[in-house]
Amino acid sequence: MASALIKSAFRASAFKRNFSSSAHNDEAREAAKWEKITYAGIAACAILTIFNLSKGHPHYEEPPPYPYLHIRNKEFPWGPDGLFERKHH
């Protein structure tokens, strides 16, 4: 029985698990890779945003004044025009 315990103790010490110590370099390389990818993605998004915002946008003609668009049955408390509409005076 004692020899079986000694053999099992010897086997346990001979096969040491090196999972966490050997993966450290891989994790550091992987983290550095994703950090570079993140910075490249941020730069690409910033460039695309600047490009899209620098382009002009089309200004369309004013729509025809249809009579059914601004039906007012009651006066607003702030006056005859809408609060955020342009005044046509």
TrEMBL record:
UniProt-listed Gene3D superfamilies: Cytochrome c oxidase, subunit VIa
Keyword Chloroplast tagged: no
Pfam family, any one: COX6A
Main location: mitochondrion
TM region(s), chain numbering: none
GO CC term (a single one): mitochondrial inner membrane
GO molecular function: enzyme regulator activity
Record keywords, A-Z: Membrane, Mitochondrion, Mitochondrion inner membrane, Transit peptide
Example GO biological process: mitochondrial electron transport, cytochrome c to oxygen
Superkingdom of source: Eukaryota
Compartments (UniProt record): Mitochondrion inner membrane
Similarity comment text for this entry: Belongs to the cytochrome c oxidase subunit 6A family.
Name the UniProt record assigns to this protein: Cytochrome-c oxidase
Natural source organism: Solanum lycopersicum (Tomato)
Gene: LOC101264898
